[in-house]
Design brief:
Strand content: under 5%
Mean pLDDT: 91
Number of strands: 0
Low-confidence stretches: none
Structural class: mainly alpha
Number of helices: 10
Radius of gyration: 23 Å
Order of helices and strands: HHHHHHHHHH
């Protein structure tokens, strides 16, 4: 080849962009645990503040008393949400998928909403009948005391907001949002993800007894199915909030007659 001939060099290959992906089973499980720890830390920080600033001598009985205070419960639930959101944002940012797509933050149809409400009402009324037939209380006794405490301190509005809005958002983002998304794309597939996320959601309600555990788990299965059918957690957030509101009103009625 003569020196007059030019040499054409091929341009270097461009780096291939990393394709967006969901975390699979292990990644979803570990990040889900991190979200729960962050949420719990946010909630615990409120209780720790009131314990440390209480002028009376420290005792475990005092901690138990403060943990059942309606004002503290409401503030704790609210404090857990931003901590959970922070870890969720970090985990999803690493995945390369948009936050809205990863968590299925999509509008829902009126048909899905109506179907969800009818199914939830039928399920809850069925459990009410079971509880009544077995002579079991239909509202957790400790919640009566918590609501009374909140009302006495003028914080009832805060507690109701925490129970009916903040708690459903936090729990649905974690269970039917993040956990379901990753687990459904693993070997579990959607069916296994619905069951496992419902078990996790049930375990987050350790304050209840086994009767309420069964009810919570069955509601979780319904929410998981509706999440699968509608491809949106906005539906389950709304239904979760309505269910908590109905339970809160029922407990308030019991508290007013006890």
């Amino acid at each position: 080849m003569s020196s007059s001939e030019s040499v054409t060099l091929a341009p270097p290959p461009l780096p291939q962009p990393r394709l967006p992906r969901a975390w699979k089973f292990i990644g979803t499980s570990l990040w889900g645990l991190a979200v729960f720890i962050a949420m719990f830390a946010g909630q615990l920080s409120v209780l720790a503040y009131f314990v440390l600033t209480d002028p009376t001598p420290f005792s475990f009985d005092k901690v138990t008393e403060l943990a059942g205070n309606g004002l503290i419960v409401g503030l704790s639930v609210v404090a857990g949400l931003p901590m959970a959101l922070l870890v969720l944002w970090i985990a999803i940012r690493f995945s390369g998928v948009s936050l809205a797509d990863y968590l299925a933050l999509r509008w829902i149809s009126w048909r899905h909403l109506l179907l969800g409400i009818v199914a939830l009402v039928a399920l809850v009324m069925g459990w009410e009948g079971v509880f009544y037939a077995m002579g079991h209380e239909t509202s957790a006794g400790f919640m009566v005391d918590v609501l009374k405490s909140a009302r006495a301190e003028g914080a009832l509005w805060l507690l109701v907001f925490a129970i009916c809005v903040v708690a459903p958002v936090t729990e649905e983002l974690l269970t039917r949002g993040f956990l379901y998304r990753g687990w459904s794309e693993s070997a579990l597939r959607p069916g296994g993800a619905i069951v496992l996320s419902s078990l996790v959601w049930t375990a987050m309600h350790l304050q209840y007894d086994w009767f309420f555990f069964a009810e919570v788990f069955s509601i979780g299965l319904l929410f998981g199915y509706l999440r699968y059918r509608s491809d949106s957690i906005l539906l389950t957030v709304i239904l979760h909030g309505l269910n908590n509101l109905a339970a809160t009103l029922q407990t308030l009625w019991i508290a007013g007659h006890s």
